[in-house]
Write a structure and sequence with these properties.
Largest sheet: 6 strands, antiparallel
Distance between the termini: 15 Å
Oligomer: single chain
Order of helices and strands: EEEEEEEEEEEEEEEHEEEEH
CATH architecture of the largest domain: Sandwich
Number of domains: 2
Length: 252
């Protein structure tokens, strides 16, 4: 690819987070992307073989009958399971736990609610709520299903998507016992314009949108970015070489 380019200008390291990805419409129970980052025209993006950090949250919401001061959410009855990670966290009751947080809808507005207890074995979460609350919402670390790091190619490639890494939600939740980074991106991948990095899930949990302001997703992917210029025909040659390296096909 370098022979096809006149140069790569101002390449610099960057750290990609949830806000770098354009949210996608997940279909619970089917493999579907939740985020996509498309390389801009005239740019290059390199995913580095490096440790990553990935805590993505699911969301569950249900109506409640006003008048009470407590409410139990039974995720287990929905066939949904949650976990606590090894991150530092305050003791319950709290509204600031990084792995399990609750909100209540009061007069049409969402506000924090204290979680008093959360039992992963039973799948139940007990909340303190205002007597006027008419709905509750949980953000939690799901287990059950998997998360994939993928590359999608421009239209016309032999295949449209190739998998770079695949982790179960359980192993991500239970990893990082000895440090802040959980897993390793297994290979470095360099992409040019119109290629995209995407996060795909295969789970029955409803994942919180990556731009959900109440969610607390943590995604840290080491990468590098810069600008690229091409001699005549160089862009097509670069696309063909990337496709061949990724097994996406030879031509575009």
């Amino acid at each position: 690819m370098r022979n096809a380019q006149r140069g790569i200008i101002a390449t610099k390291p960057v750290r990609l987070g949830a806000r770098n990805f354009e949210p996608q419409a997940q279909v619970p129970g089917h493999p579907s992307p939740i985020g996509k980052l498309t390389v801009e025209q005239g740019h290059i993006l390199g995913l580095r073989r490096a440790p990553l950090r990935m805590y993505v949250q699911a969301r569950f919401e249900e109506p409640i009958t006003p008048g009470g001061t407590t409410h139990t959410v039974d995720l287990g009855a929905q066939g949904l399971a949650f976990a606590f990670t090894k991150r530092d966290a305050p003791a319950f009751p709290t509204s600031k736990h990084p792995d399990m947080r609750a909100y209540q809808r009061v007069s049409g507005a969402w506000q924090p609610a204290n979680v008093t207890t959360a039992d992963p074995a039973a799948g139940t979460v007990d909340l303190e709520v205002d007597a006027t609350a008419d709905a509750v919402r949980l953000y939690y670390i799901p287990i059950g299903g998997e998360i994939r790091l993928e590359v999608s190619a421009p239209v016309g490639s032999g295949r449209s998507v190739v998998q770079i890494a695949n982790w179960t939600m359980r192993e991500l939740a239970e990893s990082a016992a000895y440090g802040p980074e959980q897993k390793i991106v297994p290979q470095s991948v360099y992409l040019i314009e119109d290629y995209a990095v995407q996060l795909t899930v295969d789970t029955k949990h409803t994942m919180a949108a990556l731009d959900d302001e109440l969610a607390r997703h943590e995604i840290k992917l080491d990468a590098e970015t810069g600008r690229a210029e091409y001699v005549p025909g160089g862009l097509k040659e670069a696309q063909a070489r990337i496709n061949a390296l990724l097994g996406l096909g030879v031509s575009v």
